[in-house]
Design a protein that fits this description.
CATH superfamily of the largest domain: Periplasmic binding protein-like II
Radius of gyration: 21 Å
Helix content: 40-55%
CATH class of the largest domain: Alpha Beta
Shape: elongated
CATH topology of the largest domain: D-Maltodextrin-Binding Protein, domain 2
Number of domains: 2
CATH architecture of the largest domain: 3-Layer(aba) Sandwich
Structural class: alpha/beta
Number of helices: 12
Strand content: 25-35%
Largest sheet: 10 strands, mixed
Order of helices and strands: HHEEEHEHEHEEHEHEHEHEEHHH
Length: about 280
């Protein structure tokens, strides 16, 4: 009897374990769920403050609250009972990859801006919330009075951002129009951007909720209002093959975003200061 090749066996087992750990996420499709009256959802998140973040063993946030209401809607309208699993991906690019490569009931919960480029790779829910992209920096950087002065006022400063993000797109636009020699470096997460801004004279782009977090924690980070960009909205992403998009659209169109419960979810997770900031930017 031939002895087993232990080295080959070990390599094969390792390969299988890696495949399982990093395999495609696959949740229930709506077609399957409508028949079985049960659904399994995978909620992929990246620990985004106010949107989907784990604390004390529980994941909470704006997007989590919205999906909980969607689950109730499915129970009431379709008789479907949902079981959920949260999947943490701390790196933003890996978070996006996980959702893009998923199938069925896979949902990406974060501060994801809706744009035409992303629509090529994902299905989006209707807009969940208006957003403002803010130009921010270390407190030691002089406040910018005009975008035309970027090259002189920010001379020699590095801009930090996330790859494949609306932040990167915004910085690239500013670089093209106002500061061709701007150096842009990418980091894994918004928290890393804030760490860079706190540690050195540098600039970046952040969503309003991260700026509010910086204010609450008294970080040495400031906002440059002339760089505010208002034409942005957040949505929940799904794999391109997902058949849940029409259903979640019906949920939103049922009056959810005009309900008191929707306002309560925003207030609970982002606070009244967030609404004040959004309103103040819109009126400027």
């Amino acid at each position: 009897m031939r002895k087993p090749n232990l080295r080959l066996l070990a390599v094969t087992c390792s390969f299988l374990l890696v495949s399982i750990a990093f395999g495609q996420l696959s949740g229930s499709s709506f077609a399957e769920s409508k028949k079985s009256k049960t659904a399994t959802f995978h909620y992929v998140y990246d620990n985004t403050q106010g949107f989907a973040k784990e604390s004390n063993g529980k994941v909470t946030g704006l997007m989590v609250g919205i999906m909980e209401e969607f689950e109730k809607y499915l129970s009431e309208k379709e008789g479907i009972t949902v079981s959920r699993e949260f999947v943490l991906r701390r790196d933003f690019s890996k978070f996006l990859d996980e959702v893009r490569e998923g199938a069925g009931g896979v949902f990406g919960l974060s501060n994801i801006s809706i744009n035409e480029e992303r629509k090529k790779s994902y299905v989006f829910s209707p807009p969940c919330l208006d957003n403002v992209l803010l130009l921010v920096s270390n407190n030691e950087v002089p406040t910018l009075s005009s975008l035309d002065d970027m090259a002189s006022s920010f001379n020699g400063l590095t801009a930090y951002t996330l790859n494949e993000s609306s932040y990167f797109k915004r910085l690239s636009e500013l670089k093209s129009q106002y500061y061709p020699n701007l150096k842009i470096e990418t980091v894994p997460s918004e928290s890393d951007v804030m760490d860079k801004l706190r540690a050195e004279k540098a600039i970046g782009i952040l969503d309003f909720n991260y700026y509010l977090e910086a204010l609450q924690k008294r970080y040495n980070i400031k906002r440059h209002p002339v760089g505010d960009l208002q034409n942005d909205q957040f949505g929940i992403i799904m794999p391109k093959s997902s058949d849940w998009e029409p259903v979640i659209k019906q949920f939103f169109e049922s009056g959810f975003t005009g309900s008191s419960r929707y306002s309560q979810i925003i207030s609970e997770n982002l606070g009244s200061t967030a609404l004040k900031l959004l309103n103040s930017v819109r009126t400027n």
